[in-house]
Amino acid sequence: MTLIGELALWVALLMAVWATMASYAGGYYHRGDLIESGTRAIYATFAMVVLASIGLWTALLTKDYSLEYVAGHISTNMPSAYIFTAFWSGQQGSLLFWELILSMYATVALLTSRRRSPELIPWAAGTLGAILVFFLATNAFKANPFVRLDWLPVDGKGMNPQLQSPGMAIHPPNLYLGYVATAVPFAFAVAALITRKMDTDWLAIVRRWALVSWFFLTIGIVLGMWWAYVELGWGGYWAWDPVENSSFLPWLSGTAFLHSIMIQEKRGMLRKWNVVLVVVSFLLAIFGTFLTRSGVVESVHSFAQSPVGTWFATFFFICLAVTIYLVATRLRDLEARAELESMISREAAFLYNNLLLCGIAFAILWGTLFPVISEWVRGTKITVGPPFFNTVNVPLGLLLLALTGVGPLIAWRRASVSNLKRQFLVPAIAGVVVLVALALSGMRAGYALIAYGLCGFVATTIFQEFRKGVSARRHIHGEGFAAAFVHLIARNRRRYGGYVVHAGIVMLFAAFAGLAFKTQHDVSLLAGQAYEVRDPYGHNWKFVSQGTSMSETLNRITMGVSLETWRDGKRVGLITSEKRQYLDSQKNPLFQPSTEVGIMTTPKLDTYVVLAGVAQNDQAELSITFNPLVMWVWIGGFVMMIGGLIVMWPQAERRRAQAGYTSVMLPAREIAAEVPAGV
Amino acid sequence: MKPRTKFLIGGGLVLGVAVYLMATSIAQTGTYYLTPTELTAKLDTDPSFRSTGVRVGARVVPGSIQRAPGGEEYAFRVTDGARTLPVIYRGIAPDTFTDSVDVVVEGRMGTDGTFRATTLLAKCASRYESAPTRPKYQQTPGYQAARGATHA
Fold first, then answer.
1. Nearest to A593 among B95, B131, B147 (CB)
2. Are A176 and A101 in contact (CB under 8 A)?
3. What does A227-278 look like in DSSP terms, one character per residue?
4. What is the model's pTM?
5. Dihedral (CA of A338, A343, A348, A354) sign
6. To the nearest whole angstrom, how far is the Cα of B111 from the nearest Cα of chain A?
């Protein structure tokens, strides 16, 4: 099966080469037979990549240690679930995983859009084929997962214990699903630029795939945060590490695109800008993949340095050059069909939203690359850390949060005073009330106060929208509360799904603001000793060490300590933190010891205990962190995912035709008020 | 004034503030990232550099890690091959901190020539992967010769 797998990888490469040549040639000479052949070659590439993947999975699950990849990534005594996920835990396998997703996406995208946009198909298929050629060639020539060792190891080297976690099993696939999905809008953007056809069907395809990318990137990033929080044991979930940043960048540009595309749909504006965003998202995804694999930037979680770096850099610059040429030669086709009419309008709000998202992305890119840039310019490496990213991004992020409340409610074209008053009076009061209440209760951190005030404002705007919509439905259709609520969302998925996403964003911002109040304490405790401390809310905590223990299980030796925990004199439970040493089947230690964090979670506060080590006479060295509101990061992420699902859920054709924008549910006087004066 | 111009002015303001924040925070929080050799060279030419916080990337000298009894103080040496630097670090060391790993220490050079680190980051050359290595006995010339004879 491994032999078939390797063969399939090479055949896939040939198929992708054919797909590219046949599609482009067919598009150029308008030859239907070549176009058909090229599209089919994409499907064949997908089939071959599936076969190659089955080959690698078979080698892993049958523990064929003659393969370098298998011997390097698993060991006999590992749980099978992680043997399965070892497929994407290394350089070679994860490249194959990229191709698996990309060829699948390409197949689905071509199948679903060939009838509606036949002129775009050859160019999109050719571009997708070209991307596949690059990845398959890199995989086959530079990082082949089927390379054999000239000796047979008794056992493999196992998987890093930090990767043996459910979070790590599902975080990379989601991130890859998100990264790779940027290739489809890119391919269709290239196709539209070449054919100069940028109609509503094109918009629909690009928007759908941008949404898929955004959805999976969101899940991937939040899972990555969760994994870092529970697995790495440094007390936080985001460190502005280059690898984290590189997953965040395409998310930011994708988010900007999902907003600005609405302006193009409604008003025919921002046509150049949207193409640029599509291209930038793809380039950032390639750049992120390059960054994680090349060793260009120092990161605590990069892959081993490898020769694929130069290949990725070359590919990146080719894509950049081609798209710059295409956009530059087609500027006239991309002229806007309308102009901005007023600064107090939805268009302006969305423009600022885009400006901020791109500003944040640029600042993050700049900070990530600053060591490289400063070495070029001044000859010495200068690194910037979390203080840089926070100084720049906190104010920009807060402005963005404010726009989250303004954008969806302000009128198109030109907002009237009555529109502003009707939509924003109550939310603004709510925001100020939250701010004042918190300030009076003793909160003194400036940015946090502003953040909670804005959270109050945005949350109220969302609540107000749902309340208005539900009561209108109950009024018109005589539905009950629950039915009205469900129908409201179901009939206007884009709008109300968007609000659900925004609700998730509010929760995230509330949680981020909680970071301002995080406290950490380093403690050494003998068995029976107690440590008393106050948390950020002013509660009194007491931790009593129950002593250290040691145990041996299947593939690890575990050293642990338990703390009996009391809050305000009431016992709240036991927190256990462990240090684990993983072993191979011959009991040899594998990797460095790893930490299992003890976390006690409540909606208000996480109590986070890390066993740093055990000194002589069994004294446990601990780090105890009070992390306010962390739970809301995970809840917020989940809410965003649900919102994304609502927006993405396919609507039946008939319904889509019926569902006008807001007209279905708003009573007549509301509609009259929505339409600006003079129209 | 046209709304477009107004928007551009507003956008320019926002971007201006962002660039200002970036520039000032790089000036305030940017840290030199040096090797022990570069750090020594800098200190030789400019002794006042001692008061500047820097990050030093180097490898831990095997066997040099000493842990103060009971406390959380580590004394160790790092090297880039040419220069070796003694380091003292107080705090919790990461799991990956052992002999011969690449570390990044952040702190200041003391007057006694010892580097006082406030943060310690350790990284494996390949953190998530470890290449399979031949058992010792298989690396001997005798084994290779015998293997060559049977497999040729």
1. B95
2. yes
3. HIIIII-SS-S----HHHHHHHHHHHHHHHHHHHHHHHHHH---HHHHHHHH
4. 0.88
5. positive
6. 23
Look at residue B55 in the predicted model and tell me its pLDDT.
Answer: 86
What is residue A218's predicted lDDT score, i.e. its pLDDT?
96
Q: Looking at beta carbons, which pairs linking A429-432 to residues 24 or more positions away fall under 8 Å?
A: A430/A456, A430/A457, A430/A459, A430/A460, A431/A456, A431/A457, A431/A460
Q: What local confidence, expressed as pLDDT, does residue A524 receive?
A: 87
The set of residues, in sequence order, having a beta carbon less than 8 Å from that of A539 and lying 6+ positions away, is A567, A568
Sign of CA dihedral A402, A405, A408, A413: negative
Q: How many CA atoms lie within 13 A of A596 on its CB side?
A: 18
Instruction: Convert the pLDDT of each residue in A567-585 to its tens digit.
Output: 999 999 999 998 888 777 7
For residue A89, give both structure tokens.
């835990």
CB atoms near residue A80 (< 10 Å): 10
Give the pLDDT score at B137: 61
Contact state of B10 with A343 under an 8 Å Cβ cutoff: yes
Please provide the size of chain A in residues: 679
Which helix (H) or strand (E) segment holds residue A561: the answer is strand A556-567
Within an 8 Å CB–CB cutoff, is residue A228 touching chain B?
A: no
Sign of CA dihedral B26, B31, B34, B38: positive
Q: 10 Å Cβ neighbour count for A337?
A: 9
A166 or B127, greater pLDDT: A166
Task: Identify the band that residue A635 occupies on the pLDDT scale cut at 50, 70 and 90.
Answer: very high
Asked if the C-beta of A592 comes within 8 angstroms of chain B's C-beta atoms, the answer is yes
Grouping H, G, I as helix, E, B as strand and the rest as coil, residue B61 is: coil
The answer, yes or no, to whether residue A114 has pLDDT greater than 60, is yes
Kindly indicate the confidence band of residue A458, based on its pLDDT and cuts at 50, 70 and 90.
Answer: very high
Give the pairing type, strands A519-525 and A570-583: unpaired
Q: Token pair of A60, please? A: 């892993």
Residues of chain B contacting A610 with CB distance shorter than 8 Å: 92
Mean pLDDT across chain A, nearest whole number? 87
For A444, the 3-state DSSP assignment is coil
What average pLDDT score do residues A506-521 get? 94
Domains and CATH numbers, chain A: 417-491+649-674 (no CATH), 518-631 (2.60.98)
Q: Flag whether pLDDT at B129 surpasses 90.
A: no
The ipTM assigned to this model is: 0.75
Contacts of B7 in chain A (CB under 8 A): 340, 343, 348, 351
The burial class, CB within 10 Å (0-12 / 13-18 / 19+), for A454 is buried
pLDDT, tens digit, for every residue of B31-79? 888 888 888 888 888 877 777 788 888 888 888 888 776 667 889 999 8
Q: Do B30 and A391 touch (CB under 8 A)?
A: no
Within a 10 A sphere around the Cβ of A425, how many other Cβ atoms? 10
Q: Above 50 in pLDDT, residue A192?
A: yes
**CA A544 – CA A372 distance, rounded (Å):** 48
Q: Are A577 and A622 in contact (CB under 8 A)?
A: yes
